[in-house]
Fold each of these.
Amino acid sequence: MKDYNLTHLRELESEAIYVLREVAAQFERPALLFSGGKDSIVLVHLSRKAFHPAAFPFPLLHIDTGHNFEEAITFRDDLVKKFNARLLVGSVQESIDTGRVVEEKGINASRNVLQTVTLLDTIEKYKFDAAIGGGRRDEEKARAKERFFSHRDEFGQWDPKNQRPELWNIFNGKKRMGEHFRVFPISNWTEMDVWQYILQENIELPSLYFTHEREVFFRDGIYLAKAPFMAMKTTEKAEKLRVRCRTVGDISCTGLVLSTADNLEDIIREIAATRVTERGGRYDDKRSDAAMEDRKKEGYF
Amino acid sequence: MTATEEADFSSKGYLNMQLLRFTTAGSVDDGKSTLIGRLLYDSKSLFEDQLDAVKRASVQKGGEHLNLALFTDGLRAEREQGITIDVAYRYFATPNRKFIIADTPGHIQYTRNMVTGASTANAAIILIDARNGVIEQTYRHAYIAYLLGIPHVVVCINKMDLLDYSQEVFEKIKADFNAFVAKVLPGEDLRFIPISALKGDNVVKPSQKMEWYNGSTLLETLETIPIDQDHDMIHQRFPVQYVIRPESDKYHDYRGYAGRIAGGIFHPGDEVMVLPAGIKTRIRQIDTFNGPLDEAFPPMSVTLLLDDDIDISRGDMIAGAGDLPKAASEFDSMICWMNPKPMQLNGKYALKNNSRDVRCVIDKIDFVLNINTLEQIPQRTNLAMNEIGRIHLRTTKPLFFDPYTVNRQSGSIILIDEATNETVAAGMIL
């Protein structure tokens, strides 16, 4: 008898395409949050698939902390050109300059938390009613409770204890004026699924994900990249090592891992063998046990 | 190859694994969180930083051994109160399958959460504390698994270590459970496994203490349950989700109907009927980004191109021409109420079914069910949170559906309170 089973990657792909099409059908002004990281790159790929042969019906929105890896920005601009996408940028620097937020000081200063204000301001400015994100439930414990369609009140806040039940594949995107939704089409993907999918689909990634030589320093069990705006303690010493990113975010909170993996197969082998979670290398999650939950309630990605 | 051996996840085979979604049901203290922790721990799906965090928390709380249950607590309030509030989704993989667990809490808003978790599950694990045997809640769990149409049920009789791993205890509970489910789970794929989640017996590794048990461990069971028949492969159902019209010169006349196949196998050339228009046409092409397909089946997301130019929009249904779904604007449904504000007889709600949005009025409550005894309580005028009942409703426009027992996608509905926009009920059309 013929086998009518989809592989796990095809089933997850189909689910994500379904969710993206629901967004286009249920919302008037959606946007796709694009960070230059692998998850949002996969989202762009899925969006191209969902609306083929038409262009995907939403712009990319990048919340720019100004503390970027150059490679990520170059990659972003190339991708926009290649797929003829529309790119909008919300600038954290601008939020600082206009006094909307105050820059953190000290050795652990990061613009990660400040992004939330810029993100919410940008959503309000363009009147977006849905922001599509690459968040996954396997990433972090607060995210394990996230819905595909996640409601945000008019202050952009998430109320984790009072979420709408989500049943079958029926998504309720009804809202009042001024409220919006965060939508997570790859909720059910794991880090391994994302990498396997990138391999299967031959999706292009920024060079940061592959091994390269970089000046790094060691702090609290994590390698961080040396950069002009990264304050270092006197005891910390930069050294040149072969590293790669496991996630790509703002430089100040993206941990690098020692690695010689220069192709997708090697990266997947490395991830299969690794004993630390993906976000274990994220400096932003180390602030407290509920760091992610607290940021998400306020409107973080 | 066992789950714990090193696996090369990049090789071809691991790109082609099956996905099994399951839900877990148990009463408070049946050891559900411990069981999930055990599955993740023994299948090596937990990472060092997660382990460290739980080790630290276990010591802090004064526990003797590693508290596996702590792996499943997500929100701050849950960690503080030591309870689970909301459905949480967990992920793990073995070289044979990938798994998604809908982890539903044992007490607060129990029914609402279990119904939510069960709605997408291929399998349900029902936990029974061997010391207590089959209790009222067990009936409730079995009934919800049945009501939500979960095709496979695995009953795990837990804490066998506390009863000397006694075969007699196991057989007694199995007989009690079978006696009850003869009523609600007829013909269901039903299995029983004696386990100790705490000690790890028969979860991932076979127990050395229960040689009388010849069956599979829980993980082997989850790895081998056949799931290829879990979708309706007979009745062709394609709810139109979105119309694709590229405004470009190259695709000037392209008009594609995007959606996810809810039932049956579609081929180019198949004769179909478009509802509600009631017009017959043929499938010209099944389109995807990667090129046209020879066939498409659930749960694939595709785009259908048709032979004739017909006015079709979101909410319409494309179905096999000789095998139509029901088209009706009044019908009976089982319903689970999920909102603190009770359902009112004659109340009006927004309703979603497939991609269709309508409004409805509840014009009859046949009965409310006591799900612990399955007793039908007639003459009620409302339905409170976590209650299940049978209602009759009328809609502003017809729906195109199959009975839920035939098709879990086309036969399901949700109700939405139009004042708050909250999802207030889940319904299974009869």
Note: Chain B is about 20% helix and 35% strand.
Amino acid sequence: MAKYVANRLFAMLITLWIIVTITFFLMHAIPGSPFNQERNTSEAVQRNLEAHYHLNEPVFVQYFIYLKSLATLDFGPSIKQSSTSVNEMIGRGFPVSAELGMLSLAIAVISGVILGIFAALKHNGTIDYIAMTFAVIGISVPNFIMATLLIQQLAVNWEIFPVATWSSPMHMVLPAVALATGPMAIIARLTRSSMIEVLNQDYILTAKAKGMSTYQIVIKHAMRNALLPVITILGTLVAGVLTGSFVIEKIFAIPGMGKYFINGINDRDYPVIMGTTVFYSAFLIMMLFIVDIAYGILDPRIKLHKRGN
Amino acid sequence: MKKIVTMFLSLLLLIGIVGCTTTQDSSSNSNSGSEGDSQEQSSKILKLNNGAEPTSFDPPIGFDSVSWNALNNLMEGMTRLDDNDEPQPATAKEWDVSEDGKTYTFNIREDASWSNGEPVTAQDFEFAWKRLANPDTASPAAFLAYFIEGAEAYNTGEGSAEDMMVTAVDEKTLEVQLTSPVGFFPTLISNPAFFPVHKETVEQNPEWHTEADSYVSNGPFKLSKWTHETEFVFEKNEEYWDAESVNLDEVHWAMVDDTNTEYQMYKTGDLHTSDVPADLSEQLFDEGKAQVEDQSGTYFYRFNTEMEPFQNANIRKAFAMAVDQQQIVEFVTKGQEKPAKGFVAYGFEDPSGGDFREVGGDLVSTDAAKAKELLEKGMEEEGYDTLPAVTLTYNTSDSHKKIAETLQQMYKESLGVDVELANQEWNVFSTEQKALKLQFSRSSFLADYADPINFLESFQTGHSMNRTGWSNDEFDSLIEQAKNETDEEKRFELMHEAESILFDEMPIFPIHFYNHVYLQSEDVTGIVRHPVGYMELKTADIK
């Protein structure tokens, strides 16, 4: 196991290095400059700015300068917001994005699993149809449409929740729900189908024959097997929720990471593009790794360390 | 196994709960909800949206409206623009101009002081203006200082700070020598690039401008709270020399990037003003809710005079005359813009009181028959049997696309020419346009300072704003003469002459002048929006 983890960690570093390199050269290959303005700027001013950020050096030199500072986990200063470092941006934005992501993931998992279980238990019944209608709507309505609908109804018309910004638990409800609908629908459908499969297994029949209540059967016997596929896709869902949050953050004016990512690219703010990409990549690679480990623990049939021997 | 699953689920739940509680703590610090409502009775709080985190509150760095709209109310330069966009004494009590118009002497008010209680001195100004031109500051606005003798040399690394001719004669007197008699200098220095900075603070702490605690200002308001990426709060600055005229107690600036969200917040009373979402603009205009203010700038198209077929002036003219500006503003943009028939926008008064644009009149007319004639003439001159393919390029955006498609239609109808449309991401577009790689492209100009010369100087040979490859000696010399002319009447004549040459040659043609469309609560009065310049809240008030 230790060897497996060590191997994986090493592979992760290599992956990251490849991502850094590709992103760096791609980013410099796109035409444009962080100092491009529609308005008038004199050439001398442009030169001063470029010298200030070492952009007048050859790309290879810039690459090595960047790798060097990256080795010390220093992402450098933002070009657009010159007084803010990219580390500060991530430090400010990521906790907010993580909070939003975790909250909506919790909503998605809990409500998705419950919906899925009920749908499976009342297989082809009214509850099943209602739950799956929800699921289809959740999958097919993009989260920014959902967000706009929620704002219009719950915030503007009924004035239950605030329209936007991020300052109290009440402010979090709408964005978290808007972001959760998609993953929730996926989880509900997945839970339903694997639950139906598990419920038809022999050992469930045995449990029924022993006279256990439905509640006990579901909680004690069916759920842990039915949820395995859900755990498997959690890694990808985390990625989905994080990337999906870009739009939600913009609509709800949430000070998360999303806008740095988008604006960084639009502004050709090179350190911001690199910083956010490296950070997200590291985070997602880590997530997938954790899911792999967790999967191995949950399902004894999967032996992670075998390959190492 | 079951335990692990339940543990995992409860962990997720826990994280959710912890998430809720941490923000509950932070929310108790901010005055939201009922607390805020009761406060409004006693104090006047204006709620605005800044759209995004300010780039920087360091005057020479934040060269954009998300920084300077707010900064304009935190700090104050020698002058401030009044309701009629005229410069009025602000930190300066008065100023003298030498006979040749090149030397300005400013006397700073005795009671002008910083938010930390210290007096605003001429040394602060000298320090700030030299800092603007210092190449190490890398200010994108540095070129605005080039009017000052020695500033350009200093900024380009050829001169030194000592040779930049801005001098603090004594604590309250500042002397500035200009390269040429710039009549609009008092207007120019109302620009945030010329705001003073508290010398001692800046020297001691280079990061002084990044947090509310360390920020020192000399304007109507002071920065009392800055939650990065979320909001910042202004409080009335009691140290301000004219604090009596300031009505608001606080200004809260949100950072909402989405116009629809901004509009919804405006509707629920979370904001006092809002921009108008594109989909709703027609409806809001019909209901009479949207308000319009002129903005000094021009939406126009550039021909690349180094690419076929636009090396030919008659062909350029044909393409310009086939366009009906009136139709575009009426049926396409629908934002009550004024159609543009010249390059310099409305709002610049000449010595005899006339408006530059009205005196200059229409320099391009819509005339399909004449356009067709000119096209044939031009093609004959160049020996074309068929016109080389024309591609019109714009940067990706719905509004630009609509205009581009209308132009395509107009060319088809009036000239019988099929124009290809292409769009590019903004930054790519901008790079290609500057490198003269685009044949025919969309452009815009917003004035940096309030004088027609700012518009016209763009098309001097090799100017960084030219971007057409066009060059005309007579035009260049007229601009030079206008810049050195002390007699205002003559100066305006020279500028009119230059503009008419520009339109005889037509390296560009205009579509419409910009305006600013917004919604504002009826309770709010006194917010001033200048055609050139930034928002003024000094005299704003809430009923």
Note: Chain B touches chain A through 72 residues (CB under 8 Å).
